[in-house]
Amino acid sequence: IRLREAAERRRQQEEEERRRREEEELHRLMKEWEEDEKRRREERRLEEEAKTKRLAAEAEMLRRRQAEEQERLRQEQEQREIEEQRAKEEAKKQAEAEERKRRAAERSLFLDSLFDEFEKACDQAGVEDTLDQAFAELSAEPWGTPPGSP
Questions:
Q1: In degrees to the nearest 10, what's the CA dihedral of 89, 90, 92, 96?
Q2: Contact yes or no for 130/122 (Cβ under 8 A)
Q3: Angle of CA points 44, 47, 48, to nearest 5°
Q4: How far is CA 78 from CA 71, 74, 81, 85, 149, in A?
Q5: Nearest to 130 by CA among 141, 118, 140
Q6: Alpha helix segments (H runs only) across 126-144
Q7: Residue 126: enclosing H or E segment and its boundaries?
Q8: CA 92 – CA 83 distance, rounded (Å)
Q9: 18-52: b or e for each residue (b if 16 or more CB lie within 10 Å)?
Q10: Burial class (CB in 10 A: 0-12, 13-18, 19+), 88
Q11: For residue 57, which of 3, 38, 82, 120 sits 20 to 30 Å off, Cα-Cα?
Q12: Which long-range contacts (C-beta less than 8 Å, at least 24 apart) are formed by 145-150?
């Protein structure tokens, strides 16, 4: 009976030792799993942090590009406005020059018609070479028309 009891106790001790080793192994595996999980969470956090930084940098670069594009468009608009203003001024100057030419041409025509009418009046009055006579009188007197001349 003692041998049986001793064998039973030994079997129980071995069983307890096996359970204890299994519990220790389970405890060790749980610790490893927790450490692995902790490491994975830290890696995910670092990846998310890097992604956030990258996205922030991309957003900042995009904002800068948009600001540069807006500035470029503003400068182009200013340049177009300056060129339009120059074109308007040039067109105005051209119009003024054409108006001066037109007025000069009108004056010239007016003076020509006055001269023609004067010649016609002279021809009708029987006065010949009146203009030539007036020029001759003017050149004879350096200070102007002599008194009593027509």
A1: 140
A2: yes
A3: 85
A4: 10, 6, 5, 10, 67
A5: 118
A6: 130-140
A7: none
A8: 14
A9: eeeeeeeeeeeeeeeeeeeeeeeeeeeeeeeeeee
A10: exposed
A11: 38
A12: none
Rounded CA-CA distance 144/140 in Å is 9
Q: d(Cα 59, Cα 146) in Å, to the nearest integer?
A: 94
SS3 83: helix
Contact 137, 146 (CB under 8 A): yes
Determine if the pTM surpasses 0.85.
Answer: no
Task: Take residue 81 and report the two structure tokens written for it.
Answer: 């406005």
Q: Which two tokens stand for residue 55?
A: 């996205």
Q: Which two tokens stand for residue 103?
A: 């007025």
Tokens of 84: 């339009």
Q: What is the DSSP letter of 150?
A: -
